[in-house]
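Hi W.,

Here's what went into the run:
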Amino acid sequence: MTVLQLTDVTGGYTRKPVIKELSFTIGEGELVGLIGLNGAGKSTTIKHIIGTLLPQKGEIRLNGVTLSEDLDKYRSSFSYIPETPVLYDELTLREHLELTAMAYGIDEQTLQLRSQSLLKEFRMEKRLNWFPSHFSKGMRQKVMIMCAFLVNPQLYIIDEPFVGLDPLGIQSLLEQMDEKKKDGASILMSTHILSTAEKHCDRIILLHEGRVRAQGTMDDLRGAFGMPNATLDDLYIAMTKEQDHE
Amino acid sequence: MNNLQDVWSKRFNHYMTEVQKYMRFVFTGHLAIVLVFVIGAVGYQYSEWLKVVDATFPAEWIVALAIGFLLALSRPVTLLREPDQVYLLPLESKMTTYFSSALKWTFWSQIGLAIVIYIVAIPLLKAVTELSSGQIWLCVAVIIVLKYLNVHIEFNYRYANRGASLSIDRMARGVLSILTIQSALTEGYSYVIIFIILLFVYNRTLAKKVKIQPIPYEHFVKVEQNRMMGFYRFANYFTDVPHLHGSIRRRGWLNFIYSIVQHNQNGTQSYLVYRTFIRTDDHFYLWVRLTAISGLIALLVNIPIVTWVVAGALSFATTIQLKYALLSSGDFRMDRLYPVHGSQRKNAVRKVLRLFMVIQAIIVMLCSVGQPLFFVTGILIVAVGELTFLMTKDPSREY
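Here's what came out:
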């Protein structure tokens, strides 16, 4: 079953589009990596999917609806972990979790159950009453991750998740992602850590200058670039060179 | 060196636009209303007092102390920035042009206040001393010379000592300035000349030290940063200064208020807004300040119509500023993605403001309890608050 479907999406911050005629889908239980150079349009694509930017052309369907058709259903269907943590300076860690639970209609009992295991997993139990100003960059990132996993949505959208996390944090995040996948959730992840992407992603979308350059499994990509046995790093560099020649 | 003159001019223009941008808000803000009232009241009291002031009143000493002390505070405005420590380093020997422009501006921007205070004191001097008009105006010239010397000495002292033990220098200059003005006001002109020569020699000594030292960029940049920070904090009382993030305090004693909010999806924005308002110093202290001013005026001015006008104006000011502060935001916040209705935030802000305007009304009403029709004050505050919220535009729609 298709969870997320982008059809010919064109858009950007101004009239000049950053992403052009983007089309791809993400199925149930799939982990898809969004890979591209700086400025290729990864973050812009994500902003269109979460609805902070609206497409100039084309359509984005999440769980069968567009944002304008059913705002509540669309927004309840995903949770988002931004590249730079966005926290409320005036809320403690506990309150961030409570607020998220309230917003997504999660009852008290479920909140307790889920947050306890998340706090333990990310080793943040002792910081429940802290304000974010006392958190390091990695801890802030962990708060975002916990809030996202607390919601338990159909789709996770994760922008550059590994930057700022310590190795244990990265491990915990990958485990959580794996677990959610097994439960049937889908994940769209943008990253520059290619070895991790190659290892964990079911499919890869290579963005280049706002367009999909190639997409599919690692084997599909090797085929598209005519480079059998290539790693994702090799393919990425090949794409860079392609750009240099233009 | 034309180059550094340009650097100064560019910086100065940028600085002026920045200051003007924020001063607009200061003079259209609620403090302007209060200032008009305060200046009016103080002016009236002063003129009444002048009619009965005793001829033995030590006006010369008081004027000398006030202005002399003020003159000693001559912090240089250099407009230096952090990168200058690197980029202007090769131009070290040519920086004299830059600093002379900086000191000119320092002098002109600070002399005004001293002169204004002196002019305000002229009626007093005329009432209790026998100085002629010429002598009174001669003292203005003395103040100008003193200010010029103070600006240069403070700059040279900071330069030569990298800002260490500035208070000793300030104290010395303060005492000398006070004595000079006092002498000028008591016709001791030979003393005036002696004190000014002393200051002049002091300045020359420091200037010689300056010549053999590298520019203390670190100190001057820090002075400049503190000065701008002070300005932004001040401006932040009137408007939202974007790069100034208000500090957060838990204020645990107000936790009981949060229990009003229902823990379900409809309460999401209320959960957030109550905490944002109570814990953000900028928002909370704005309310405290305006409530205190309104209460004080109700307590001290026993004319009901004045109390009503002030209470109404301050209720308007409180509501509109908090509405803007809580509803407008250019920054991305996670609650923009929440699956809750878009109007929830506005309703939450309205509820928080309603509660705190009722509290303001009760406090001000208690302060005016001796006046006839004191309950009108309370009704007025709540009504103006509600109307302000309804009739003003919704800033969140601008995005």
